[in-house]
Input
Amino acid sequence: MHLINEINKAYLKIYAEEEASATIKTIPIEKRTTLYNRNDTNGKYGIWGHDIEDLMLAQIEIYETPDKKLILALITES
Output
C-alpha cells in the first residue's frame, strides 16, 4: 500500500506543478461548455485530456536493468 500512496503523491505533485507553471490554466469542470475532458495546458508537463480524478492505476510493470536498477512502468487508465 505504501507504493500506491507514493505514486498518488507523485501524480498530485505533477498536476500541481503543471497548474503552477502554466499560463493557460485548466478550465474548471463546472465552467466547461464544449469540453468534457481537461483542456490542454502549457505548463511543465503539458498535461491534457484527463483530470487527475479521472486517472486509475491499472498496472505496474517492473523491469530490472543489467546494473540491477529497478524501473517501474505505471499503466494508467481513465
DSSP finds one helix and two strands in the chain.
